[in-house]
Automatic annotation (TrEMBL):
<dbReference type="Pfam" id="PF08495">
    <property type="entry name" value="FIST"/>
</dbReference>
<feature type="domain" description="FIST C-domain">
    <location>
        <begin position="206"/>
        <end position="336"/>
    </location>
</feature>
<protein>
    <submittedName>
        <fullName>FIST C-terminal domain-containing protein</fullName>
    </submittedName>
</protein>
<dbReference type="Pfam" id="PF10442">
    <property type="entry name" value="FIST_C"/>
</dbReference>
<feature type="domain" description="FIST">
    <location>
        <begin position="4"/>
        <end position="205"/>
    </location>
</feature>
<dbReference type="InterPro" id="IPR019494">
    <property type="entry name" value="FIST_C"/>
</dbReference>
<dbReference type="InterPro" id="IPR013702">
    <property type="entry name" value="FIST_domain_N"/>
</dbReference>
Amino acid sequence: EPGQASLVVLFASTDYDLDELGRAIGASFEGVPTVACTTAGEIGPHGYTPEGLTGFALPRDEFTVEVACIDDLQQFEYQNGGAIATKLRSRLENRAPGARGDNTFAFMIVDGLSRMEEPLTAAVHLSLGDIQLFGGSAGDGGTFERTHVYWNGEFRTDRALLTLIRTSRPFLVFRTQHFVASDKRMVVTESDPAQRVVYAIDGEPATKAYARHLGIPVEELDAEIFACHPVVVKMGGEYFVRSIMRHRPDGAIEFACAIDQGVVLRLAEGVDLVKNLEQTLGSVRQKLGPPELIVGCDCFFRFVEAQTRDIQGEVGRIMRDHNVVGFVTYGEQFNAAHVNQTLTGVAIGARRAA
């Protein structure tokens, strides 16, 4: 019942007429904060559910929610992010005092083609204190043309939503990736971080250097190769995956994250995606008990790899068995970082005994 919900979250295929869908969502959930976005695939009760609509609602008696809509992302400035998060937190505090990391988490949805995730995530996270953040960048079915975020009756581009969720239930914010660093290292010698383009690696055209490290001719580079062979960068003692979106005729490589000049990249080696997912969700279950809901933001490049390796059915089954609802993204957010080729999410446990 919409009246019993404090928040409705929906993930939609771009096959829908978004104007029509926006009006239908507004009419169906009037008076309830509703956030939604377009996806590169939906995750629901049957695992991966392409060309569909999936979602969940949080009950009002156990969840207090505040949402901030950030429009015109291209004009976004770092200091604004902090102000938005601080204001949102004080709105939540007014309704439910004492919001802390053990009772509150943040969920973000961003236009997945805005290229604004890095400054937005970093700025917002800094002002949240010990409250953990996770999220995903909206998709458009793998066409990389326009991704939309819904708020207040309409789907729009160049928009992000930051949702703060305070709950009496136990929860766990997590991320996982199934890539480790190999010993093949390369240095970015020319790049445009704002556009996420790397022009040169080790002093030669980026595609040439990347193909050389893989031991294949440049002509063989394609989406499957990129999905199965990303690179990793080291930040704060941890390795983070940097996905390759596409390569260009001029020898440049477009990434799904900003990459600065001078950064050391290592070719990544994949470990078993299925086993990694089972272990991750198994350890979530161990810490929390059987989750009633896991909200998952799963990278498009993981989805492509699962297709390439023909393991989509298995991955979908694991998701289904652990009550995952979510979407296939163009990038994921985890605390202060915009990341790729990961699954980020929150697991929500059963009601605490009185």
